[in-house]
Design brief:
The structure holds two protein chains of two kinds. Chain A is built from two helices and six strands, in the order βαββββαβ. Chain A has a four-stranded antiparallel β-sheet with strand order 2-5-1-6, with helices on one face. In chain A, strands 3-4 form a two-stranded antiparallel ribbon. In chain A, strand 3 and strand 4 form a beta hairpin. Chain A is an alpha+beta fold. Chain A starts with a strand and ends in a 17-residue tail after the last strand. The N and C termini of chain B lie far apart (88 Å). The radius of gyration of chain B is 38 Å and the shape is elongated. By secondary structure, chain B is an alpha+beta fold. Chain B contains 40 helices and 15 strands. The chains are: A alpha+beta, B alpha+beta.
Chain lengths: 112, 924
């Protein structure tokens, strides 16, 4: 199992969620996060006046999927999350050792 | 028993059956006669009247049911509180009975609360602990020594009932403590049937307080003695029966004593109570609405009865009377809140306007209205006709209530509970305790509405007291949590809203159409417009109000679900709001609406996204930036200018030039551009005109800067726009700035469709020359147009998309010195000239302007005055301007084809292509 962790633009959430649903992924954890990457926090000169941005509001989604589904999920997120501009975000894939559904105690892939 | 519950047995019947069953079980296990024959509990008993109250007299000890068991109000998994009461001499016998009985009950997995006590021990415990005291006071003899039990009861009653003393105060204080802790949970969407406000616990408190004060907790007896109205007794009875049934079902479903009514439970309960879905109205929503109506009723009865029971000692009454002062003639304000003066009482209760004024006065003094007065107001409202509230005096009182932040939410909430609000806004009857079965909402619609108001009003509070003027950066100030930039901006926006009454009314109505099916924003807008007219607001206010309600979700949606770097999003929002004032209101409304959904629903994260959108759109609407600290920014510009120009311009000259600049110009213009403008104006001879032209490689546009003397010729701006139109140039942006020295500095960023690449220097010189000639009066504009006839647009092509509505909005609130005209229109080549001419035709002089074109939409802002330099505030003149300018634009737009764009050269800077507009002006 893998944990796919994607930091995306907030307004892309709906689109990505729908795209994932289409490929059969329905469960995910969503959180409001702030961060800065290559775009840095920037001091934007916007019409001659400064507009300071320290950390940029982003949305983080986390999905645990069986290994065989990882590529499908990644492809979907990359496609639906793209605007082509700086600040589109990043995706990380991590190994997951175990998953347990609290209510039933089921383990492994059955639990995700 | 379960069958009886599911089969529709009432709450009271089931709790009685369960209590009787417990009685029989206890008797049987204790080996006492009475019900030994009935075995199990399957048979129905008729209320248990046949049970022997005390079986065989057993000397020296008694079995006593306490608390809910004592009241015969057991639910399926309630605790069974059982006490073995014994005489000091019978302690060994009592211990034996207790051990035997309690063990057997434990073996049957009964949830047992158990104790073994003497009368003296009971009294000592009762003195120490409030919970034990109330539990003992409701003790009931199940079996055993009746005389012993009577002696306990007599002693308890003697010690604790029938007085106004400490016990009542203790109970009231405890009740208040619980209420304030669970305050908002009265309408929590997953309430606790026992502990939430207005729930079973509140009913118990009522009974205890009545018992303590008047010696009986029985509603019938209280009614007979005049402490409880018949309707109140009925409300309590109905609520209690309802709660019992709910609680029984919760216990059965969970197999445990669960008291929280979760969403899943609500769905099941709605079916049990027979609420089916009907069209847009979900059964579960109607069920929960019933739930909250009960909670509200109980809460109201409790508030009144508790206040009454607590009474006041004589010295307090005297003191309060001394402290009381008359306000507004009819009312009396004392430490308990607002009440009616003896003289004014009849007058207020008979006169709708005075009745509404009661709430306005409470709001102004930020005080509550005393519960008894509220009850009288409610009774009065019931008999008064709705139409009687449609008088100018009544609506004026209501409008006054809405104007001054601080106590509005509380006053309106009281007005809603007393139903006086329904007289003015009948729509509120429909959202009374209306439930929204979504996860987002923690409150009923009405309660949510008051929360939103409270949140908005809260922005008026003194936010950062530690930041004293001039003390910026001073260390050692009081440690105050630094406020987020978004919150600061929200406060500023709220402070700048002039018509807070309209915002507050919009908040009051924003969800008023919930529960009707369809789009609640659209339907609500209709309600708002109608209400505005009823309340005597003028047409402009009515439109603004309807807009706020209709668009109350727009900003949030755009900020969270749309790409705010996409200009289409900005354009749409800007068009929707149209006025800076409206945008500010929507900004505050969006924040308060989300924050009012429940604890934790508003986050700094959302605040940043919303604020980013607000800042960008405000920029479109005012042509200037919302700058956190304009003075600081202006000072920074000044320092930089002095540095840049210090070597080339002497200090006095620079100072003179500086003094002529307007703040708005300084805030929106890059410093290097300001510096160049200053050098050019310093060199401008009296009566002369100077035109500078420069191609902008990054955007494929040309920038024309025109310097002229304001008194040279009337309508400088319109004339320049005319020349550019005649030459076939498309104006993307324009900035007009009239200096205090009388110099006009106008910049126009244009696209020249006649050249595929950058226009050659001859072209720049030709256009510049024409502008100069026209402004100097050497070339009539009409002649220029004639000469360039071939550039005139031909008839409209029918294929194009239908033009969007032209909007012309006059705003006298954005600026102290100028009237601001916002124009939104479908862009056409030459449009700016048409608008400028139309403004001139209306006798207006343009002092400053920000013209922008985005996605075939012109979003233009003009700062104008009349020819005498005054703002235009006469309403008739304002609407004449709006109508007149819009007409001119429509004539033109319908005739002219959409602006034909030569394919622009591929921009070299991709960021500029996205149109952030950060490089454009003055960059080279």
């Amino acid at each position: 199992m893998k944990l796919v962790q994607a930091v995306i633009r907030p307004f892309k959430l709906e689109e990505i969620k729908e795209a994932l649903e289409e490929v059969g992924i329905v469960g995910m954890t969503v959180s409001e996060v702030k961060g800065l990457g290559r775009q840095k926090g920037h001091k934007e000169i916007y019409r001659g006046a400064e507009y300071e941005v320290d950390f940029v509001p982003m949305t983080k989604i986390e999905i645990v999927v069986p290994d065989r589904d990882v590529d499908r999920v990644l492809e979907t997120i990359l496609r639906a999350g793209l605007t082509g501009n700086i600040g589109d975000g990043k995706v990380f894939v991590l190994d997951v050792e175990e998953a347990i559904r609290i209510r039933t105690g089921e383990r492994g892939e059955h639990a995700v | 028993m379960e069958g009886a519950h599911r089969g529709g047995a009432t709450g009271p019947a089931v709790v009685r059956m369960l209590s009787d069953l417990a009685d029989r079980l206890v008797l049987e296990l204790a080996g006492l006669p009475g019900d030994a024959t009935s075995g199990g509990g399957r048979q129905r008993t008729a209320g248990g009247d046949g049970l022997p109250p005390a079986a065989r007299p057993s000397p020296g000890w008694a079995l006593v049911a306490l608390g809910g068991y004592g009241r015969r109000e057991l639910c399926f998994h309630s605790d069974v509180d059982l006490m073995v009461l014994h005489a000091p001499a019978a302690s060994a016998a009592a211990e034996a009975v207790a051990r035997d009985l309690f063990h057997r009950l434990w073996d049957l997995r009964v949830r047992l609360g158990h104790s073994v006590r003497t009368v003296r021990e009971c009294l000592a415990l009762a003195a120490r602990d409030l919970a034990t005291r109330t539990s003992l006071l409701e003790g009931r003899l199940v079996a055993g020594d009746a005389e012993l039990f009577d002696s306990l009861e007599r002693a308890l009653r003697r010690a604790w009932t029938g007085g106004r003393g400490g016990f009542v105060r203790e109970l009231v204080a405890e009740h208040d403590r619980i209420e304030s802790r669970h305050g908002s949970s009265l309408y929590a969407l997953e309430p606790n049937v026992k502990k939430s406000g207005g729930g079973l616990r509140t009913i118990h408190f009522l009974r205890w307080v009545a018992l303590a004060r008047w010696g009986t907790g029985d509603p019938a007896a209280l009614h007979a003695r005049g402490h409880l109205r018949a309707s109140e007794g009925r409300a309590l009875r109905e609520a209690q029966a309802f709660y019992w049934r709910v609680r029984n079902d919760l216990h059965l479903a969970a197999g445990r004593p669960v008291d929280v009514v979760s969403r899943d439970d609500q769905l099941r309960l709605a079916r049990l109570f027979g609420y089916a879905d009907e069209g847009p109205s979900l059964g579960v929503e109607r069920f929960m609405r019933q739930y909250y109506l009960h909670a509200t009723a109980v809460h109201d009865v409790a508030e009144r009865l508790l206040a009454r029971a607590a009474g006041k000692p004589r010295w307090r009454r005297v003191l309060d009377r001394l402290r009381a002062r008359t306000v507004d003639g009819d009312f009396v304000l004392d430490p308990d809140g607002l009440a009616l003066g003896a003289a004014g009482r009849e007058r207020v209760l008979a006169d709708p306007a005075r009745l509404v004024r009661l709430f306005a006065v409470a709001a102004r003094h930020r005080t509550r209205i005393q519960p008894g007065v509220l009850e009288s107001a409610r009774a009065a409202a019931e008999v008064l006709d709705d139409a009687a509230f449609r008088t100018p005096a009544a609506t004026a009182a209501f409008r006054e209530l809405l104007a001054e932040p601080g106590g509005i939410a509380d006053a309106l909430s009281a007005m809603h509970r007393s139903r006086v609000l329904w007289k003015l806004l009948p729509e509120f009857r429909d959202v009374n305790r209306l439930v929204q079965f979504t996860r987002a909402h923690a409150f009923t619609v009405d309660e949510h509405t008051f929360q939103v108001l409270r949140t908005a009003e809260g922005l008026a509070g003194v936010g950062r007291t530690a930041e004293s003027p001039g003390g910026r950066g001073a260390a050692g100030d009081a440690p105050v949590q630094p406020e987020s930039p978004g919150r600061t901006r929200l406060r500023k926006a709220y402070a700048e809203i002039r018509r807070k009454d309209l915002l507050h009314l919009a908040i009051l109505l924003h969800d008023a159409a919930k529960g009707r099916g369809g789009d609640h924003s659209a339907i609500g807008a209709g309600i708002a417009a109608a209400a505005a007219r009823r309340f005597g607001y003028d047409e402009h206010d009515a439109r603004l109000l309807a807009l706020l309600v209709r668009e109350h979700l727009t900003l949030g949606h755009a900020a969270l679900r749309r790409d705010v770097a996409d200009e289409k999003v900005l354009v749409d929002v800007a068009r929707t709001a149209a006025h800076p004032e409206a945008l500010r209101m929507l900004y505050v409304l969006t924040f308060a609406d989300v924050a009012g959904m429940g604890p934790g629903s508003w986050t700094e994260w959302k605040e940043e996204l919303l604020t980013a959108l607000y800042v960008r759109v405000m920029d479109w609407l005012t042509g200037s930036r919302e700058v956190a600290d304009p003075a600081e920014r202006v000072e920074a510009v000044r320092r930089e200018l002095t540095e840049r120009l210090g070597g080339r311009m002497d200090a006095a000259r620079l100072e003179e030039q500086w003094a002529s600049l307007r703040e708005r110009y300084l805030l929106v213009t890059p410093v290097e551009t300001i510096a160049r403008h200053l050098e050019w104006t310093a060199a401008l001879a009296p009566g002369d005109v100077r035109v500078e032209a420069e191609n902008q490689a990054a955007t494929g546009t040309t920038l024309y800067t025109v310097l002229a003397w304001d008194d040279l010729t009337p309508g400088v701006f319109a004339r320049i726009a005319g020349v550019l139109a005649a030459k076939g140039l498309e104006v993307l942006r324009a900035q007009v700035d009239t200096r205090r020295t009388g110099v006009v500095v106008d910049t126009f960023e244009v696209r020249d469709s006649f050249f595929a690449g950058a226009p050659p220097p001859e072209r720049l010189a030709e256009v510049s020359g024409a502008v100069r000639e026209v402004l100097l009066g050497r070339l009539p504009l009409a002649e220029l147009f004639e000469r360039h006839r071939r550039f005139r647009p031909r008839a409209a092509s029918p294929a194009g998309p239908p033009p969007r509505d032209t909007q012309v909005e006059v705003d006298n609130e954005a600026s102290a010195a100028f009237t601001v005209v916002d124009v939104f229109a479908e862009d056409r080549q030459g449009l700016l000239h048409v608008i400028a001419e139309a403004l001139r035709e209306q006798g207006l002089s343009v002092h400053s302007a920000r013209v922008a074109t985005r996605l075939d939409q012109a979003l233009d802002v003009f700062y104008v005055t009349d020819l005498a330099g005054r703002k235009v505030e006469d309403p008739e003149r304002v609407s004449a301007i709006e109508r007149g300018v819009a007409e001119r634009i429509d004539e033109f737009v319908l005739e002219a084809p959409p602006a034909v764009r030569a394919p622009a050269p591929p921009p070299r800077d991709p960021r500029a292509a996205r149109g952030h507009g950060r490089t454009v002006r003055g960059a080279s």
